[in-house]
Write a structure and sequence with these properties.
The complex is a heterodimer of chains A (260) and B (296). Chain A is 75% helix and 0% strand. In chain A, helix 4 packs across helix 5 and helix 8 packs antiparallel against helix 9. Chain A is an all-alpha fold. Chain B has two domains: 70 residues, no CATH class; 207 residues, MetI-like fold (Orthogonal Bundle), CATH 1.10.3720.10. Chain B has 14 helices and no strands. The chains are: A mainly alpha (260), B mainly alpha (296). The interface between A and B is large, with 40 and 47 residues.
């Protein structure tokens, strides 16, 4: 029950941030460059004299948006890979499993970097590369989860009752997969937050000047000796958000394992 | 065993071919960019690209890519340096960074995990909180924090450009995952009946932990350490850039930025071969630790 209240509180705070973000202009130059935190600018100003606090609010919305986009791409890629492995003849399944494990052995950051070579280096491309780089991991997770479910008793029961392949997949297997999918999506989302920002910090892409937390970190690096708040604030925001997402994912995982 | 070896070889082939195909369809390359920005005409660009074999038919290019990887006989498009020299020069720095990071992370991760699973109430709470924070902290951020704090705290380390600082940034993240794996594994062991049996025989608590639970829980911990390889690699890439340290990771980032494809191809291939080899070895180690796991 406590978790339900927590989720409600998180949604309310999130909405407030979205509203507040509409009221502020993140690129307005409002003070001197690199002003330390004060009552006027709670987290100081950046190298152009823009309000870091306002940028953090507005950028948070974008950060979440692009990480969600990466998550959707990763999950879609994972589902496609699983769909190729699951049904069909045995030989095809064995081959696809080999492909999946081969894909899995390439470190995600390398896949993301190669994907970034292919595209331009905008914000969408970063989200795309992040998503693609995690597709194999989602695929492996989903195909092992669906193997567990296809072996479950209620599926055997449905088969012996004469259910068709399509009926069993749409009515029994996919609905039971849904909670696993949501839990996996949260894990992927928290990785996507970190990976998007790390591609930004590496200077491989992103939109310079946009208030996303990754871009703020990348820009803040150059004046962090004089103005450490430029690096500390967006990083801390990222850590808190990732901790919250990980916490929800763990609660969900515990539910799933006790249910099983 | 042979099947496992076969799948390792397949993985390597797959990684190289995938990178080759992706880089093949990439628009532009380092030569093109460099010549365009120096004001060269299309004719000169075509001539140069043809001399380097960049426009060769796909089969020929594929065979040559393999030959170049095996013989190490290719040159960087951006600098003209032979790639085997480029990699040999950087490999030592990267290996040192990764080794120091692992050496820092394995003991701290094991201890934190043990405290989180079996410590006192306060110890468990603080260790678990620490693990959650570490798991959520991106490597580049801990790296930047270390860079901010180090001049005041450890001026000597900054001056020597010590490997300890970047390694610490990677180790912080690794400690989190390792500790979480240890915690989960040890908890699961303590739910088993053989622990109760040992207790009822009067085996001291400490030797239950070290001789029973840790030994049985070692397999999941070992496999987590190897699965963290991808994390270690991305950590190395990021920290080398953040700390402006020489190494393969930084070379790769620069090669991606200027579209120096032979370098990207070589480093991705090398990393994949290393990753696959280590995963293969770790399966062997797990089979030695736990006779129930047979290498299929």
């Amino acid at each position: 029950m406590i978790h339900r209240h927590l989720i409600a509180a998180a949604i309310v705070v999130g909405l407030m941030i979205v509203v507040a973000a509409q009221l502020t202009d993140p690129s307005a130059i409002v003070g001197q460059p690199l002003e330390p935190p004060s009552t006027q600018f709670l987290i100081g100003t950046d190298f152009l004299g823009r309000d870091v606090g306002a940028r953090l609010l507005v950028g948070g919305v974008d950060t979440i948006l692009f990480a969600s986009l990466a998550t959707v791409i990763a999950i879609t890629a994972g589902i496609l890979l699983t769909a190729l492995t699951m049904p069909g003849p045995r030989r095809q399944a064995t081959m696809m499993t080999a492909v999946l494990s081969a894909l899995l052995s390439i470190p995600p950051i390398l896949i993301a970097m190669v994907a970034l070579v292919l595209t331009d280096a905008g914000r969408l491309q970063i989200a795309f590369s992040t998503g693609i780089s995690m597709g194999a991991a989602v695929g492996v997770f989903l195909s092992s989860a669906s193997r567990v479910i296809t072996g479950a008793e209620f599926v055997t029961a449905a088969i012996s009752l004469g259910g068709s392949e399509g009926h069993i997949w749409s009515r029994h297997i996919v609905p039971s997969l849904a909670p696993y999918l949501i839990q996996q999506a949260m894990v992927v989302f928290s990785y996507a937050l970190i990976m998007n920002a790390s591609l930004n910090v590496l200077g491989l892409g992103g939109a310079p000047g946009s208030p996303e937390w990754g871009s703020m970190l990348a820009e803040g690096r150059y004046s962090m000796r004089d103005a450490p708040w430029l690096v500390i604030a967006p990083g801390l925001a990222l850590v808190v958000l990732v901790m919250a997402v990980n916490g929800f994912a763990r609660v969900l995982e515990r539910r799933l394992t006790t249910w099983r | 065993m042979t099947r496992r070896l076969f799948s390792a070889i397949f993985s390597i082939w797959f990684a190289v071919t995938l990178t080759f195909l992706l880089l093949r369809i990439a628009p532009g390359n380092a030569i093109h960019t460099a010549l365009i920005s120096s004001g060269a005409g299309q004719a000169i660009i075509d001539e140069r690209e043809a001399a380097l074999g960049l426009n060769a038919p796909i089969i020929e290019a594929y065979v040559r890519a393999w030959w170049e990887l095996v013989s190490g006989n290719s040159v960087s498009l951006a600098s003209g340096i032979p790639i085997h020299m480029l990699i040999e020069g950087q490999l030592a720095a990267t290996a040192e960074l990764a080794a120091v990071a692992l050496a820092l992370a394995i003991p701290t991760g094991l201890v934190t995990g043990l405290v989180a699973a079996r410590g006192s109430r306060l110890g468990r709470f603080s260790a678990q909180t620490l693990i959650s924070i570490l798991l959520a902290t991106p490597v580049y951020w801990s790296g930047l924090l270390i860079l901010i704090a180090a001049p005041a705290l450890f001026p000597a380390l900054i001056q020597q450009q010590s490997v300890l600082l970047p390694a610490a940034a990677i180790a912080l993240g690794l400690t989190g995952t390792l500790a979480r794996a240890t915690e989960t594994s040890i908890r699961a062991q303590y739910r088993e009946a053989y622990i109760l049996a040992a207790r009822s025989r009067g085996v001291p608590e400490l030797s239950i932990l070290t001789r029973h639970a840790l030994r049985a829980g070692a397999v999941p911990i070992t496999s987590t350490i190897t699965l963290q390889l991808a994390f270690l690699i991305s950590g190395v890439v990021v920290t080398e850039t953040v700390f402006a340290r020489a190494g393969l990771g930084r070379t790769l980032v620069n090669a991606v930025l200027v579209q120096d494809f032979p370098v990207v191809q070589a480093i991705v291939a090398l990393t994949s071969v290393l990753t696959i080899a280590i995963l293969f070895l770790s399966d062997g180690v797990c089979a030695r630790l736990d006779p129930r796991i047979r290498m299929e």
